[in-house]
Amino acid sequence: MLRLRPHHILDIVRNIGNDRPRVPHPYGHLVHVVTERIIADIDAECELVVANDDICGPCRMFAPDGSCTDVLAQLDPPIAKQTYNDELDRRLLEFLRIESGSVMTLRAYLELVAERIESVAKICAHPKERVEDRKRGLEKGLTMLL
Prior knowledge:
Layout: E1 2-4, H1 6-17, H2 31-40, E2 45-48, E3 71-72, E4 79-80, H3 81-96, E5 103-105, H4 106-115, H5 117-124, H6 131-145
Parallel strand pairs: 1-2
Antiparallel strand pairs: 2-5, 3-4
């Protein structure tokens, strides 16, 4: 069973929709591996967590205490990625009325997202990302997966 942050799933769906290459990242995280698993089995069960997940483990920014040491320096003021991601995932889960630690199929999670795509795109868009671009990528990815 996968253990994933809700926003990581949505980043992957957007990446699929935008036809981004599925290659290893210089940081060493496993987005490319998890993407392939999602594509291979959209009906796989997944635990939705507000914590570092199956993607984070081998990342060079993953600290021994289980936290992310990366900083989003492009934001003003800069913010720890751990803080940013935790807050984002809490907002997503609250909006979708899902408890952290819930287990559901990826399909069920993405169907909930598809029903509320406009708001989800607004919640997930990064400060320097256009909401329309996020939404378009998500919609294309959802169409390909569901």
